[in-house]
DNA sequence: GTCTATACAAGGATAGAC
DNA sequence: GTCTATCCTTGTATAGAC
């Protein structure tokens, strides 16, 4: 299906050279289409972007849903974050452009990014509260607010740092690095039970 | 001087509406100049950007230098970060665009952003080591690496989060919020002496 | 419904007159 | 040092072939 191919090629090109440096004509050329034909499927270049961001968002939603079927644990939480991180890497070409997300953020006819991001924040709030209830972390409400702020900023921008400051990052290594930072932060609040969960995750993940 | 005025107007417009949505013709109109005259001072639009980033970088360098004349303390460190944060806000129009910094990062004939950012990382490393030596924080080498990674990412992207997700942020409030997060992170490693320094900073800062 | 060809507007960049 | 005129690229819209 042509539409799917356009999305696939676009993402590939965006990842390679960034959203702004890839033109509609180039996307068309990649698929041996006429430029106008790309426009037939996506009236505006931004529409390609929004669709890709929607794909990304949907993919993550399934990760969150999967997490919520298990009982809360730090190991489970770290596994979730790892999945999300890979997803972000996959869509880095559209994800790291703040200017773009800003536009998308302000567009009314598209996904409501603000409410999505607000919802994610509440999701994290609940996750940490659950981790506390399960005896995995030792944190008061203020600590949890801090952790939410931390994970929100960290989870949104690690990929920007990795992509901007490291031209051809080894994905696996990069993600390991950032997951380690996450582990470190969580271990500052972990109970004995939480620490065990972390050790379990580390053993599976880092060997 | 025309060149200074171009820089000033450009930054104002970039801050208001973002780099991409401001055209050369518009910058010219703002100053009642012809578009070609702007080009006389800055051959490319990117050159305006690079010059502004250089200004920003220079301004920060003076903050760092000032900090190093005092003996290390958490309060002093937080004061430094506050200065930097205001500076970042001032230049947010050029600073938050990752795509731009990426280009700048890769350009060879301009400021060497990579070495600058590498140097800043080493600077933070030294700062935390000094804080440990002064008995303000209790941290092993691994902890310090973590703190450096934290401050690097956090200090680079808080402004993106603030600007993207909050259309017209109250600067003072926003900066207070992010400084509080910093305080929280540092207090996890603070010694008794460090905690006193933090209290002192809080009293001066938050009243 | 799919696709090609083409035209148009906006913005960055350049050359040359004054 | 300043300005006008012009070019080129890129996003976007449309008319029409199959």
List the main descriptive attributes of the protein structure presented here.
elongated, DNA-binding, homodimer, 207 residues, 79% helix, 11 helices, Arc Repressor Mutant, subunit A
Distance N terminus to C terminus of chain A?
42 Å
- What is the arithmetic mean of pLDDT of chain A? 92
Q: Class by helix and strand content of chain A?
A: mainly alpha
How much helix is in the residues of chain A?
over 70%
Number of helices of chain A: 11
User: Regions of chain A with pLDDT < 50 over 5+ consecutive residues?
Assistant: none
Largest β sheet strand count, sense and barrel closure of chain A: none
What is the compact description of this entry?
With 207 residues, the first copy, chain A, is an all-alpha fold. Chain A has helices at 2-17, 24-30, 35-41, 45-69, 74-90, 92-95, 98-106, 113-133, 141-165, 171-187, 192-206.
What does this structure look like?
Two copies of one chain form a homodimer. Chain A has eleven helices and no strands. Chain A has 207 residues and is mostly helical. The first copy, chain A, folds into two domains: 43 residues, Homeodomain-like (Arc Repressor Mutant, subunit A, Orthogonal Bundle), CATH 1.10.10; 152 residues. In chain A, α4 packs antiparallel against α5. The longest helix of chain A is centred in the first third of the chain and has 25 residues. The radius of gyration of chain A is 19 Å and the shape is elongated. Chain A starts with a helix and ends with a helix. In chain A, 35% of the residues are buried. At the A-B interface, α7, α9 and α10 of A face α7, α9 and α10 of B. Chain A binds a DNA duplex (18 and 18 nucleotides) through α3.
